[in-house]
Amino acid sequence: MIRTACPHDCPSACVLEVERLSPARIGRVRGSASYDYTAGTCCAKVARYAERVHHPGRLAQPLARLGAKGEGRFAPIAWGEALDRIAAAFRAAAARHGPEAVWPYHSGGTLGVLSRWGIDRLRHVMGYSRQKSTICVTPAESGWKAGIGAARGSDPRRLAEADLILMWGGNPVATQVNLMSHIQAARKRRGAKLVVIDAYRSPSVEAADLGLVLRPGTDAALALALMAAALEAGVADRDFLARHTDWSPEVEAHLRRHSIPWAAEVTGLAVAEIEALARLYVGTPRLFLRAGVGFSRHRNGAATMHAVSCLAALTGAWAREGGGAFFYALEGWGLDTRLAWASDRIDPRVRVLDQSRIGAVLNGEPAALMGGPPVTAMLIQNANSAEVAPDSHAVRRGLAREDLFLAVHEQFLTPTAAFADIVLPATTFLEQDDIMMGLGHTALTVAPRVIAPQAEARSNHAVVQGLAARLGAEHPGFGMSDVEILDATLRASGHGGWAAAVEAGFLPVAVDIPSGTDFAGFPQPDGRFRFQPDWAALGPYGAEMPRLPSYWQKLEWAGPETPFRLITPPARSFLNTSFTETPGSRKREGAPRLRVNPRDAARLGIADGGRVRIGNARGALTMAAMLFEGVLEGVLALEGIAPSDAFPEGIGVNSLVGADPVAPAGGVAFHDIAVWLRPAE
Ligand code: SF4
């Protein structure tokens, strides 16, 4: 067994043990017990990784487009010619409109220091358009930072000592199995209670001691009523509030105005359900708040995350043993990224395009282009924007532009790759060396290569180096192998070298906010949590946000035309669109099924398993209905992301999602979708 680490778009970044059957073939994959967060567990989809890495559909050699854009007809070409053509297209685009016409684009298909962000080395040195990565966590991150001050939290392993674990808006049973094993240990050892709050009855809601299903986007109303109950019960920690927050009589008077019956009306929860949760919150000082990101993917998502984060501050949970709060560790890794990302060559004058607004950028909307030139050449790595980015019809119109040169470096011929002029075959994590940041915990996990690259696949690093050589890009990082850069990066960051990191398997990094008796304040300039955030300072859309913790009614309101609210939580066997190509995951997920409350179904004449259509001004989709008591009336849930070819329209659910940026700093309201629902003709 060879030890490595998972690169997929999941906060666990598991340390893995992979059976190497030959220099080019793997067998079993399992979580490693050598790191106590992974704790010997990994998800089923990665445990079956042999079917992905050895999949007959893996891209084997570079391809050049023959057919129309999006048609998916290609002819093989040699690597040298493919890179020459990309470099020539980048040179031509830069000569005509300036270097900002070239937009290297990446997303979270792989999260390695080199395999995700190494493309930035080329971007920064060449002066190509920069990228603001907003598609995943920006609303959650903004809301968390608003109060706490940084996208960090307590070490999540502390929840082993908690008495109440409040899992707000996440589904660890399906998406973070390691977290669930820590939660189960706390329940078993200490009798800790698990509360899960979500907008549909997920497997985690079912596994909880108290599971609450509310209307999408109304979570802040519940948090406000809980805080009012705590104030009423006299359990607000006055000493903590005075020493570590900006608490004021105005904040207190505001919070006290939110009653449980009001919250029941807004959220769709029963009064008795909120009272049950309030009893737990009020009666349990050792609270560990584990916030997920799903509930933040609404137009009011950042304000909602802030309101939820106030819960741990109000009762002083941060300063209690076993208490604290965590969302993601996005900051404070202390990595010296000058070699890997050429972060020493960032030119602040170069525009920063919003990753989530790729449709608007490629369709030439002046605001999305920030007044600069059109984007006429792209290299996409780790991203399947034709299915994953919002407003997919607009994205596809942009990708289909005849004057756009598109290169896509991928493991499979995704719908995005089908639009490419040049497709490059990519290695998987098992075929390259890298380091992962464990965003759901506090360690770097180390991912050395396990097997040789399959067929002609090359790593992201190799592609960046190959293009840099052709484009005359000059930076010390371009002359180095992947291991040389990783070794130098670790040494410059004070983490020893690559060989020692491989030997250890993971490197603990102090990215947490010390809590319990070690609590010494929040990472705000004055050390104080903000009940009254300065939203305008957090992003360009912050000025309109409420000053105090609030249920901000800025949602895509369901009206007479589109009376249903649709959410798209992650399916257990897919990870965005990764794993939608593997037969095991496809078989487990089956065809897309829209969860519909039985009373809505009866009213509309929809039978269990019957064909239905949902839609709004952006598009429409057809699928089977599944009658499900686990969504409230007026709410629909479609687990995903099911691949486009699972729908007769040939496009997936993100075609219904708006790409308007979420306040204060951007991001996508993936679960804030107003739609109509009808039986399919
Ligand atoms: S749980 Fe997440 S990090 Fe762990 S193996 Fe699965 S996808 Fe990878």
Helix and strand arrangement:
Layout: E1 2-5, E2 15-22, E3 25-31, H1 44-47, H2 50-53, E4 63-65, E5 74-76, H3 79-97, E6 102-106, H4 119-126, E7 130-132, H5 138-148, E8 164-168, H6 172-175, H7 177-190, E9 193-198, H8 203-207, E10 210-213, H9 219-233, H10 238-244, H11 249-256, H12 260-267, H13 271-283, E11 287-291, H14 301-314, E12 324-326, H15 338-341, E13 352-354, H16 358-362, E14 377-381, H17 385-388, H18 392-399, E15 405-410, E16 422-425, E17 434-437, E18 443-447, H19 460-471, H20 482-492, H21 498-504, E19 506-508, E20 564-567, H22 583-589, E21 593-596, H23 598-604, E22 611-616, E23 619-627, E24 635-638, E25 673-679
Parallel strand pairs: 6-14, 7-13, 8-9, 8-11, 9-10, 11-12, 14-15, 15-16, 20-24, 21-23
Antiparallel strand pairs: 1-2, 2-3, 4-5, 4-16, 17-18, 18-19, 20-25, 21-24, 22-23, 22-25
The structure holds iron/sulfur cluster.
- For the record, the CATH architecture of the largest domain stands as 3-Layer(aba) Sandwich
* Shape field: globular
CATH topology label of the largest domain: Dimethylsulfoxide Reductase, domain 2
Number of helices: 23
Adjacency order of strands in the biggest sheet: 5-4-16-15-14-6
Provide the number of structural domains: 4
The CATH homologous superfamily of the largest domain is termed Dimethylsulfoxide Reductase, domain 2
Radius of gyration: 24 Å
Q: Which CATH top level class of the largest domain fits?
A: Alpha Beta
Kindly report how far apart the N and C termini lie. Answer: 54 Å
Reported for the largest beta sheet, the result is: 6 strands, mixed
pLDDT < 50 stretches: none
Mean pLDDT: 95
- Beta-strand residue percentage: 15-25%
Number of DSSP E strands? 25
Bound molecules: iron/sulfur cluster
Structural class from helices and strands?
alpha/beta
Quaternary organisation: single chain
Helix content: 25-40%
